[in-house]
Amino acid sequence: MNQFQNDIKSSMSKYVGAIFALLAAICFSTKAVLVKLVYQYDVDVYTALMLRMVFSLPFFIVIAWMNRTEPKAADLNKQDYYLLVAMGILGYYLSSLFDFIGLKYISTGLERLIVFIYPTIVVMIGAIIFKKKIQRNELFSLMLTYIGVMFVFYHDIWSTSKPNGVLGATFVFMSTITYAAYLVGSEKLIARFGVKRFTCYAMIVSSIAVIIHCLVVNGFASLSYPWEVYALSILMALLSTVLASLLLSQSIEMIGSGKTSIIGSVGPISTITLAYFFLGETITIFEVIGTILVLAGVMTVSAYSKKGAK
User: Fold this and answer.
1) How far apart are CA 147 and CA 152, in angstroms?
2) Angle at which helices 118-129 and 285-309 pack, to 10 degrees?
3) Measured in Å, how far apart are the chain's first and last C-alpha atoms?
4) What is the pLDDT along the chain (310 residues), one digit of tens a residue?
5) How many CA atoms lie within 13 A of 185 on its CB side?
6) Rounded to two decimals, what is the model's pTM?
7) Rounded-to-integer distance, Cα 128 and Cα 250, Å
């Protein structure tokens, strides 16, 4: 009877974890749409990013305090905290800043596809820095992914002659590179700090960096905006930052990072759909084909990378 109850609990945990992963992907996908809506009120990049972090910071401080006794895999030292600060600046400060700049110039659909290719960047970082050989199947997956991105890139930018489109795509690609580097660099730190504690600490570091950056560039004069800007910023902080991070962390704990990343592949589709309804962005056959190619390439390269790591 106890075994039967344990099996039911295990099955329920997997289903709940899958639901959390799905909700996390959808919540994350709202960020680009909300940023675009904020930009409609002539808000600059630095202020938009700062408002997001200001409204999410109190939640991460509270969550970090609540998880202060989370079990640790090892005793933490000063070097761990130095590395954590570096990862916070790299992953959630620089990566977010580049992403917000890029969103000024390109569609949310293209932005989400470029961001979604981060697993391929992780593979290439492993090959360059850690001398991990890229397998033939991985190479094919990489080619498939970037053909998909270029497919959407050509239609979204070259065929429509969008001003500064190439610049925007370049900034988003830089965001993807810095985020991939963050993932590679933070892998061991997550094991030492714990998922929730590390996420909260990294977000606190990045929030402070963003706030300082904005105040240095704009000062307090940049805070005179309509109430809609603050409402959208609060929604961005709660939905696509705090809630998304918590759901993701909980999902990883319940079903593992592999299954979570697979379910997270709905992110680009969710972003394109939301952009269609809230921003009026059209869904073209080029975008559909490109998205399919990118999803196929990313999921395949992720699967081969996991096999190679075993």
Assistant:
1) 9
2) 40
3) 35
4) 455 445 555 567 778 888 888 898 899 899 999 999 999 999 999 999 999 999 999 999 998 888 877 666 557 888 889 999 999 999 889 999 999 999 999 989 889 889 888 878 877 887 787 777 777 777 777 888 888 888 788 777 665 556 788 899 999 999 999 988 888 888 788 878 887 888 899 999 999 999 999 888 877 666 778 999 999 999 999 999 999 888 887 887 777 766 776 777 788 888 888 998 999 888 888 888 888 888 888 777 766 555 444 3
5) 19
6) 0.85
7) 32
Q: Are 237 and 74 in contact (CB under 8 A)?
A: no
> CB-side exposure of 244: number of CA atoms within 13 Å?
18
Copy the structure tokens of residue 69.
Answer: 């006794």
Interatomic CA distance for residues 57 and 210, integer angstroms: 11
What whole-number distance in Å separates Cα of residue 101 and Cα of residue 34?
Answer: 14
3-state secondary structure 119-188: HHHHHHHHHHHCCCCCCHHHHHHHHHHHHHHHHHHHHHHHCCCCCCHHHHHHHHHHHHHHHHHHHHHHHH
| 3 state SS of 281 | coil
Q: DSSP class of residue 117?
A: T
| Ramachandran angles phi, psi of 112, nearest 5° | -70, -35
